[in-house]
Amino acid sequence: MTDSDLVARGDEKAFQQSALRILLALTLCIFAVSEIHYFFSPSGLAFLSINTAYLCLLIGLLYLCNKHPQTTAVLFLLTLITTSFLLLVLSNEFHAEKYALISLYSLPLITRLLFNFKASLAAMLVNLYPFYLITSDNLYRDQMDITPSFYFQLLTFVTLNIGLPLAVSRIIKTLENNTAHMQQLYKKLNDNYALYEEFFEHTGTPTLLCDQRGGILKANQLARNLLGDEKYPFSETRMIDWLSPLEGGGKLFWQSNTAECTLKNQENVHISVRRASLTQHGHYVLHLQNTTQLKAIQQELETSQQTNSRLAHFDLLTLLPNHRHFCRQVNEKITAQDNHLTGAMFIIRISQFKLLNKQYGKDNANKVILNFAKTLQAKLSNQAIVGRLRGVKFACFVPLSQAYLIQKNLSTLIHSVLPSQISVDGKRLNMDYQVGVAYYHTDGKTAEELLEHCEMALEYATNTDRFSYYNHHLENKLIEEHKLGLKLSTAIKNKQISIWLQPQVKPNGQICSFEALARWQNEGKFVPPTTFIKIAETLGLLPLLAENLVRELVDTLSEWHEEHIRTPIAFNLAGQELMNDAFFALLMTLIADNPWLGSMLELEITETSPVMTHPLIHKRLRSLSQYGYSIAIDDFGTGQASLGQLVDIPANILKIDRRFVSPLPGDQRHVDIVKSTIQLADSLGMTVIAEGIETKEQANLLAALGCHTLQGYYFAKPSPLSDWTSKDNAKAKELRMVY
Questions:
Q1: Exposure of 384 by Cβ count < 10 A (0-12 exposed, 13-18 middle, 19+ buried)?
Q2: CA 632 → CA 348, 544, 592, 708, distances in Å?
Q3: What is the pLDDT of residues 328-375, one digit of tens each?
Q4: Distance between CA atoms of 11 and 17, rounded to whole angstroms?
Q5: DSSP for residue 445
Q6: What does the pLDDT look like over 428-475, one tens digit per residue?
Q7: Is 273:242 a contact under the CB 8 Å cutoff?
Q8: Strands (DSSP E) along 264-357, which ranges?
Q9: pLDDT tens for residues 611-666?
């Protein structure tokens, strides 16, 4: 049942209760008059007692109708019916019968007023019986006067018993329909009003509704909070009670599209008034905005124009000249002293700053930059110009004497001004740098040109060689590497990098495995692997290159597996490939689909790769080892954490780098190192492979020291993979590699 139905039901009950009170009150008045009449009539003692009883009953019903209207209505009808039937049956007086019939015939009308239409119909049917009694009795009394008496009775019966109740029911039904319709309209009006109230209250901006004279009709909560004083209702105030227009705003400022005002009780608070629309009722919708802070900012900007102009040329954190202003200062110095000025430009880049930022937070990282800038300025002469380019790059231009034109002396000078440690909140942090240097006159004649050449030199600064000097060959080299990188990218995407195999043999000379080597032939010439592998690593192409080569190797190994050629092939990884999720997933998928691949494809990890100390690499290598891959540590002994790698990497093969093999057998120190390495590997249950063997003496010595596998030009040079797979793998079968 809807809310409107409940309201209608409540109104109907209230109407019925009111009608009941009226009927009881009228009946009570009639019996009260009768009570007075019988009280003064000497012959009415018997009727007085009956009338008194009815009077008491009516008073009781009138009292009861407030709490139990339905029960009271039923008792009232029963009383009316009982009294009428008693008068009709027991009394012989004509007036008594007439009053009884009128009461009975009025019963449907009273029932409709107190109950509903169905109850009224029931009362109409009940009245058929008294109608029958009265008409039959009259017929019995006078046969000659049947027609006039009967028609009079019929007219009375139809009028009182049927006509009036139906007419009243129709009127009540119409009123109920009108009431329901009005309730729907009222509900819709309330919904629209609630929607308007919600929209007005939640516009997101302080909003007022005022008339043309500025009288405030309504204000949302934001407007009340903004104006700030609610001692008296807003509806009784005007706009001028709250706001004072600024100069030029006019008295009727609320009628303008925009107006700037101040609060009357707080003149330092500025309010912008914007008229949104003019409603159909001639009212104004006004949006307010607190512009105090904006005004303050504008005022600050106006009063600090010179300061802002200065800040446009300096770094906000260090207050050093920014890139543009640094170049301007250097060019001015060069122009002023061009004839006899010699100098050097160098860019300093703080190494591993992202790690510092992540470890100590952005605020502390900024403190590192600030302290470095202050220390650098303090250690340089007043003639030097220092600027911050961006991030962790700083530029310096230093006038030089002839002595410092020598690179060694200049490197010493630069190193002396770079702080080895920086103090941040009481903590001492070790600092590492990379420096790119260019000489004025020799490498460039403007600040912009010198900075560009310093950037080129910085590209070749490494963790081991932190100072890099610009030269023309370096620039040409960078250009050539850029062109070569474009060609390499195309070659990798087109799968033009080929696989060559170099045999690995047992001490008796029998081939037991291969190492896969990448070869790239560009314009008829082979590019050294060290060159194009480094470029691929810089360009992030190693994962794609490794994927192409691994898929080709797996295809070959699948053929060998079917031919029962059990000769493993080692594939070298630089570390960047294992950091790639897609390549790692490829390795896991390949061995899951081909379980035999674990004994046929070895993964060689270049121990010198800078990412090999990353925890993710160690985790993934452990997963690959658990799935069955053989892991080999390549170039052992040349990295920064060789022994640590043996702990972190689950390797079962150890490769001794060629730089330890080449001095053999003449250098006893290298003999002892190789011997100790082989003994260490044996104690860990690892297979040892020595690479770079070029003489018989080296091979014999390594075999005598216990090296399990030998590799080098002495045994065989690398050759294309096709040499071993052509003619149905004939060469592999000739070398008795089928077991």
A1: middle
A2: 38, 22, 20, 14
A3: 999 988 888 766 678 889 999 888 777 667 667 778 888 888 888 888
A4: 10
A5: S
A6: 878 888 899 998 888 888 999 999 988 888 887 776 678 888 877 766
A7: no
A8: 270-278, 284-290, 343-350
A9: 666 778 888 989 999 999 999 988 776 654 456 667 777 889 999 988 899 999 98
Asked if residue 519 lies in contact with residue 529, where contact means CB atoms within 8 angstroms, the answer is yes
| Rounded Cα distance, 601 and 593, in Å | 14
Per-residue pLDDT reduced to its tens digit, 209-244: 888 888 888 888 888 888 875 555 666 788 888 888
Length of the chain counted residue by residue:
739
Answering whether pTM is above 0.70, one says: no
Cα–Cα dist 576/578, whole Å: 6
Cα 266 to the center of its chain, rounded Å: 41
Secondary structure (DSSP) of 651-683: -SEEEE-HHHHTTTTT-HHHHHHHHHHHHHHHH
Cα separation, 267 vs 386, in Å, equals: 48
Q: Long-range contact list for 72-76, CB < 8 A, 24+ apart? A: 72/20, 72/24, 73/16, 73/20, 73/114, 73/115, 76/20, 76/23, 76/24, 76/114
Counting residues of the chain whose pLDDT is more than 90, the rounded percentage is 22
pLDDT on residue 498: 94
Q: Let me know: does 637 contact 654? Beta carbons within 8 Å.
A: no
- Give dist(CA 686, CA 677) in Å, integer: 11
Q: Please state the rounded mean pLDDT for residues 521-525.
A: 89
The answer to whether the Cα torsion of 713, 718, 719, 721 is positive or negative is: positive
Nearest to 258 by CA among 242, 270, 241: 270
Q: Lay out the sheet containing 207-210: strands in order across.
A: 216-219, 207-210, 284-290, 270-278, 258-263, 243-245
pLDDT band at 417 (very low <50, low <70, confident <90, very high): confident
pLDDT (mean) for 78-89: 75
Residue 56 CB coordination number (10 Å): 11
DSSP H or E stretch at residue 624: helix 615-627
CB 457 within 8 A of CB 473: no
664 token code pair: 């053999």
CA distance 130 to 406: 141
Q: What are phi and psi of 216, to 5 degrees?
A: -80, 120
- C-beta of residue 628 within 8 angstroms of C-beta of residue 621: no
- Strand spans (E) along 123-251: 207-210, 216-219, 243-245
Q: Tell whether the model's pLDDT for residue 553 goes beyond 90.
A: yes
Distances (CA, A) of 615 to 581, 618, 620: 14, 5, 9
Contact between 334 and 446 under an 8 Å Cβ cutoff? The reply is: yes
738: pLDDT strictly greater than 50: no
The CA distance from 222 to 208, in Å, is 10
From CA 375, how far away is CA 398, in angstroms rounded? 16
Helices and strands, number each (H, E), in the chain:
27, 23
What is the distance between the alpha carbons of residues 221 and 267, in angstroms, rounded to a whole number?
A: 21
Q: How far apart are CA 617 and CA 612, in angstroms?
A: 6
